[in-house]
Amino acid sequence: MSMTPIPLREFATIVDPEHDNVAVAIKAVPAGTQILLPGGSIIQITAAIRPGHRFATRALPNGTWVRQYGQPFARSRGLRPGDPITGETVQSETPAVDALATQYHPSPLSPWEGPIPTFQGFVRANGLTGVRNWVLIVPVSMCAVHEAGQIALQAEVTGIYSRTRYPNVDGVTALRHTGGCGCPYAKDGELTPGAYTATLRMLAQHIRHPNVGAALMIELGCEKTNFAAFKAAFGDADLTTRFGKPVARLTIQA
Fold first, then answer.
1. Per the structure, how many domains does the chain have?
2. Which of 77, 186, 226, 233 fits 194 for a cystine, CB–CB 3.0-4.6 Å?
3. Are 249 and 214 in contact (CB under 8 A)?
4. 86: pLDDT strictly greater than 90
């Protein structure tokens, strides 16, 4: 325990000296250490403070806002100078503010009088617009991820695909993921989808992405998220019709 007051800068910093009522330790501060604050007052640390943790620089009666960066982030439960800021010494709370809608009054928009802006893109059947045109190899489970990667790699290194040959296609890439094989279903009463449903949604959303121009879906056939699962989840419609772009299927296990 230090009997001689030590300048605050040796142990801690106050981020916003004008408004903050806490300091942040830059190294461990032992209990009993006397700290000399910039204004000349002296406080004594009441409990050991770890680096990165805060302590009160003044008395904060019960209910007083505790501030850092000049902003209130909690209410005091009755802090003495030098007390640590913990879940026991403060109540996490932020002040209520008026809703933005009661303060925000935007000016009316002026009609555009110049030429209509355009950009080079791909308008998809669902109305979305892409700025790339990728062929996506989609393994429906992690069990086919290696094969999907090899298909994408071979397409580019063997010349099956090239920008010269297909100038409107940006490339062939595989969607690598770790779901689909043995993933659990959602339990009755759960508000969030299980991994099974989440995987199906994730795969469908990647195929639906406007930067994807076409997709090849690959299954082993035995995984939970196989083509039959897609049919059960998204209906009987042909995949090309459903996604509004060419979608082919490939089963690699008899």
1. 2
2. 186
3. no
4. yes
